[in-house]
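dude i think i finally got it to work??
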Amino acid sequence: MSEVAERGGRLPWSIRLAARRFRAERADYYLWLASLLEASRGRTTLLRVFERDAERFANSPRGQLAGWWAQRFSRAGTLSHAWEGTLPRHETTIVRVAQDGGGDALLQALRDTARLARLEDQVAREALGTLLAGLVGAAVALAMILLFPLHASDRLTHLYGFIPADQWGPRGRALLAHAAAVREWGPWVMGLLVLAGLAVAWSVD
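look at this
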């Protein structure tokens, strides 16, 4: 891992990607870590936990992060510093405050943070569902707006194709022009809508 990147305040891309993929697992991880530390009664250090996880889950986001956390913990000696930048800031802040209160305070903080993380994830999923429902509704409405003139213009052209287009009435010519615009720009508009939906899902996730 690049120490230059760390000093510059930027995490390596592989660590940022691992942190994003690990985000959904963090609540269970907090609880697991609290239970492990409580059961070990001081016999297991955080550094050793990270080192074992790095070996055991070497090809997973958890293993990648554990290796990174082990490096940072070995230099700073605090859990909050090890997690900084890879887990939500407000959650690492809770841990940082609890560290000064001793082992019991840290265990309770990990459990409280797990509950907070689960609540946030639930809210995020509900918000994403609401946003996606709105986008689906907009997509359906837009599809109707785009498809109707195409169908109507094709039908009218089939029935009255023997009449030159420049001799159609104002509404007929407007319909043909609208259909032509839909054929040209419709795929781009739908593509942008799909990208917007993906961007919303990515940002909320």
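Residues 1-8 have pLDDT under 50 and may be disordered.
im so relieved honestly
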